[in-house]
Protein 1
Amino acid sequence: MKNKRILFVLSLVITASLALAGFTAGENEDSYGYSIGDYAAEINLLNVDGNMVSYEDYPKAKGFIVIFTCNTCPYAVASEDRIIALDAEFKGKGYPVIAINPNNPEVQPDDTYELMQAKAKDKGFTFPYLYDKTNTVYAQYGATKTPHVYLLENTKKGRMVQYIGAIDDNVRTASAVKERFLANAVNELLAGKEVSVKETKAIGCSVKQ
């Protein structure tokens, strides 16, 4: 009985602590960061070409395909050609890809800035591949996986988050894809429609911090 009382008291303390921290029972690791309808803040991150990149560098953009990815995760590597294809498909229509590496190279040594540069050159990335030196942008978005996608639409009020989740329904095998969640969302916005599938589950490696 005494042990049960101790466990009960501990559970109350933990619950209270989580509540003070902004969490409630039943929330998961995706409970922080941007939600659909939120407005994304400006970024200013170092690209692999040595230049700083922000959204304001794209005055004609209708929005952005923001993808948190990295050098090392097998799921991210399996998505590289798809990300290149997405940039080719939508950049000219006003939705360029912006890739951001959320991993801390002190935790994942193969995700250093120099190795990011080598990756971008080797794969022929046509989009910015940004180094989040402060390790804060991924948390601001709420990204927990690589890859993890955020589709932003430029509006009068700001860059509205319109889709969050996976690129498609088969992160492992491109040839097996049946539903292109991200591409469908961009095409709906381009057609002046509301995004029909606003959120999917991002599947990939956990962000290394």
Note: The two ends are 41 Å apart (CA to CA).
Protein 2
Amino acid sequence: MRRKVLAILPSAIVSRGLEQIFRETGEFVLSWVLTELSDARIRSAAPDIIIVDPLVADSASREGLRAHIGTLSDAPVIAFKLMNDGAEGFDAVIGLSDSPATVVKKLRMALDGHSDPARREGGELSAREKEILVCVAKGMLNKEIADKYCLSTHTVITHRKNISRKTGIKTVAGLTVYALLNNLIDINSVE
């Protein structure tokens, strides 16, 4: 069964490129394309996955875009980014430089992570949890993280447990991949 994708992208070139990628892989189908946000159309579409360019929102509402779309649909929301800003908090991030295989892989991972009840119940990572996750992904030990943020080691361990509960990921390697896919770290910063 092909998964239905709703794209909210102002660029017809990008939409057509995604449509071609989906046609070649056969796993997804671009069922709807919107060039701007439309609450009613998002609600009525009932897609399996949503791809949105954060630039469709004005700068004041860009930060809450993922949460807003989450009130309209239960589908995972993937950010499509042309620039490095405005993509925090999404289920995954795809960009122009991603290969077709990478795009499909990120969509699959977002769907898999979104269907995990532990992740859905856990909610989004807090700012502190994201900081801790970045440190973990960079290979820092609990004591090093505690020293960096003036926390106790027990507090760091509690944050790591919360991160694992919210993401559904228990290994350092898995958390590193999560941090990379969500643009919390750059591939060059990983040891």
Note: Residues 123-189 form a domain with the Arc Repressor Mutant, subunit A fold (CATH 1.10.10.10).
Protein 3
Amino acid sequence: MIPRERGFLLLTSHLGDPERRVLSYPQLRDLAARVAAFPHGDGEGELREFHLRQMGCSQEMSSRVLHLLGQEAELDWYLSRGKRQGCIPVSRISADYPRLLRFRLGGETPGCLWCRGDLQLLNTPAVSLVGCRELREENRLFAEEVGRQAALQGLTLVSGNARGADRAAQESCLKAGGRVISMVADELIKWRPRENALYLSEEDFDAPFTTQRAISRNRCIHAMGAMVFVAQANLEKGGSWYGSVQNLRHGWSHVAVFRDGSEAAERLIQMGAILVSLEDLKDFALLAQPEQNFLI
């Protein structure tokens, strides 16, 4: 791990201590911009409070940054603990980091992803799936068919590992010989590695579930797939709805919603999603606009 990658972890990871005051994404963006604009900021040598103050950082922020960067021993301990659990960090500046996340999310890209499983899946062509935890039967069949077709069409399935639509699609994909990436919202170490599967967390590998984590990871699920299939959504309620609305507003990827006759599906169509049925899943590439091949 190069010094810049260690710096990302020191500034953004709790290192197993929930009281550790790490930088938020906006604060990290601001610091990165100041460092890039600093005339003598060549990235070499020890960073001192004098440098940070010259960059325009407040005394409080300068002290905070230096304190975080100085906890090298704590980082080494946390990295070794993660390695024993099979958990590997991939920072935003790593060559392995998902390219679509960097491209689509820009400044909202997670500073680091903790990974457990097959790292080779990170930059494979993928489609995503979201949906409710409590599914109607027809919607469950749709989620399962998306997973099965992802496997048959040689695409990795990205989902959120929650009960309901996520796991229905994931299990169907793996059963058909496919590949799965799961963005978890709970402890990464809970999920044992499986063949053709990769578990990801934008928080520490031992961080517990929070509602905020469940909401936050939706943007990553939407941004990692060339197309996002919405198996079922509740109107103006829940992560599947708000994640899809956010995607449609930002244009991260194509959004395809199951034709289930629901008011939520109709509203998403009005915002720009496309309506699909089970029969439409036989060739994902045909679902894109004619002038756009979203599998390239």
Note: The longest helix spans residues 137-152.
